[in-house]
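Let us practice reading a record.
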Amino acid sequence: MRILLLAALAGLAGTPTAMAGEADVIAATATPASDGTWRISATLRHDDAGWDHYADAWEVVGPDGTVLARRVLLHPHVDEQPFTRSQSGIAIPPGVTQVIIRAHDTVHGYGGQEVQLTLQP
């Protein structure tokens, strides 16, 4: 009985990889460029646990759910939390005045905190 209880408790604890949780966008900015595109900077927080579980991308999503840009993150940021990465040359369709910035991690996918940005030319 005691062994079964310990095994059940160990299962509830989860693996270190799963314990890192979802990737959150905690801040974002949008800056218009002279060519009509945008530079988006996103600040992410995630308890990166190494190559098995880390924030691996963030996206700019239009109001209709269309992914307008994706910034791939090529490595874990274990010792750099939170961290900010930018992407330039993002084309936003005419008439779109708000976008959502969402983060992705290698275990949970999407699901953490998102930021809604109002675009001001």
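A brief commentary: The two ends are 66 Å apart (CA to CA).
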